[in-house]
Amino acid sequence: MDNITKTNIERPVEVSIKNSQMVRATIASLIGWALDLYDLFLLLYVATTIGNLFFPASNQTLSLAAVYASFAVTLLMRPLGSAIFGVYADKNGRKKAMTVAIIGAGLSTTAFGLLPTIHQVGVAASIAFLILRLVQGIFVGGVVASTHTIGTESASPKYRGLMSGLIGGGGAGLGALFASIAYSIVSAIFPGDAFDTLGWRIMFFTGIIGALSGLFIFRSLDESPLWKQLKEKQSKDKMVEQQKSPFKMFLTKYYKVLFVNLMIVIGGGSGYYLTAGFIPTFLKVVNKVPAAVSSGVLIATSITTILAAIVVGHLSELIGRKKTFMIIGILCVFGLPYFYLSLAHSTTTTSIYLNAIGLVFLGNASYAPVLIFLNERFPTEVRSTGTGLSWNVGFAIGGMMPTFVNLASGTVEHIPYTLMYFTIVIYLVYILGSFIIPETKGNLK
After folding, report:
1. What gap in Å lies between CA 327 and CA 341, rounded to an integer?
2. Considering the chain, what is the average pLDDT of its residues?
3. CA-CA distances (angstroms) from residue 345 to 26, 65, 321, 333, 355?
4. How far is CA 121 from the centre of its chain?
5. Which of 279, 330, 381, 406 is the most exposed, fewest CB within 10 Å of its CB?
6. What angle do CA 442, 443, 445 make, to 5 degrees?
7. Residues in contact with 135: Cβ distance below 8 Å, sequence separation at least 6, in sequence order
8. Cα torsion 253, 258, 259, 261: sign
């Protein structure tokens, strides 16, 4: 078999991992990824306000498309960030890369609150906004390259599927939950026009929390035991060439693996951004619910994100990654279109809650095993680079889907149907990918 269906990995003797080390790595990866996504998700919660202040248009869907395009710009820079920080993490350690990336992401988010609007400086405001999004994207990509390896590398084999869901999905849900709570508090303190004037700036200023937390959380974190084992082996064997060029090694030996991985990761990324990521906009422009109801639904769906990721992540440890992807892909092909249309036609608060929860559960289940699957596809010497690039390229493409949905919809009324068609096509590819990929469970050693 070639690298498309089977990654040839020389497996060293499995290292012993202490429970305390696993707990610290879990907390660091989970909170680090949550704070980083909190920084990234703030834009989704103020999308309509940002559209009016930085990308105004006569048609609301065009304004929203511009805002989501600025979100997609950040996602497009994430592969570059994962290449930079992934190589750094593979050569110098996961802990160092994580610390720098998270602090950088928090500071760049805080800077958004200082920007002048288009009404103050004209188109220069839009340009400055986009440039800052590019910078933020590099740091976010760097966080993936470190948090998405050190947590699973520090876990015992029986918990790796659960760890995948906990970090990848739990971190996303926790980040969204933090953003939901921040939005609820800030929108209550600055209601109506006050939010459009000052409240949105306060939302971005809270990004400094992530930068400061990064310094505190990672002080007691141990380095990945698998990475330390690799460095000890390289030191004994004088493996200088592999130490110098993990990125070159990845490009020459594992690029085919990357392409096959993307069939799964694009589906997982789209599942997130077209459900949990799109829900704030869907509730506001399609259901037209008040802020109080929207905040409650967003908090409920954030909790759902965490539960879905943990449950399905652990399921992959019981039945395997391949079978889990197949089952979830089939459920999403039929389930997501149903929930989109049902949510669009919901007229009661209860039905809005139920359909939003169902939608978010399926969307986030689709990427729950992705993190551990990617880790198992690459050896330790290129794992941060390979996992970071696979995740960030796939989620960058998935993150562009809301922009395409808004552009393809034309009007607000067409959004639910466009979402339905997009998800059917995306998850048919996802199902095809689940047939092509090998079973990887047990390859992380």
Report:
1. 22
2. 83
3. 40, 23, 35, 20, 10
4. 33
5. 330
6. 95
7. 77, 108
8. positive
- CATH no. of 19-219+244-436: 1.20.1250.20
Q: What is the mean pLDDT of residues 330-355?
A: 94
pTM: 0.79
**Residue 35 neighbours by CB under 8 Å, 6+ apart:** 102, 105, 106, 175, 178, 209, 210, 213, 214
Q: Judge whether residue 107 has pLDDT over 80.
A: yes
d(CA 230, CA 239): 10
Cβ-based neighbour number of residue 273 at 10 Å: 25
In 3D, which of 93, 378, 78, 80 has the Cα closest to residue 243? Answer: 93
- Cα 430 to chain center, whole Å? 17
For residues 216, 217, 222, 224, the Cα torsion angle rounded to the nearest 10 degrees is -130
Q: How many CB atoms lie within 10 A of CB 368?
A: 32
The model's confidence at residue 7, banded by pLDDT at 50, 70 and 90, is: very low
d(CA 56, CA 196): 13
Residues 200/339, Cβ–Cβ less than 8 Å: no
Q: What pLDDT, in 10s, does the model give residues 359-398? A: 999 999 999 999 899 999 988 888 888 888 898 889 888 8
**Tokens 């303190």 -> residue:** 189
Q: Contact, 169 vs 368, CB < 8 A?
A: yes
Q: Residue 167 is which amino acid?
A: I
- Rounded to whole angstroms, the Cα distance separating 183 from 187 reads 6
Residue 437 in contact with residue 256, Cβ under 8 Å?
no
Q: Which of 225, 214, 206, 223 is nearest to 157 (CA)?
A: 225
Q: Domain residues of the chain, as ranges?
A: 19-219+244-436
Contact call for residues 32 and 101 (beta carbons, < 8 A): no
Q: How far apart are CA 437 and CA 300, in angstroms?
A: 34
**Torsion sign (Cα): 132, 41, 398, 318:** positive
Assess whether pLDDT exceeds 60 at residue 240: no
Token pair, residue 334, equals 């039929």
Reference 301, options 352, 360, 354; nearest CA is 360
Q: Which amino acid type is present at position 2? A: D
Q: What is the pLDDT of residues 132-167, one digit of tens each?
A: 888 888 888 888 777 778 777 787 888 889 888 888
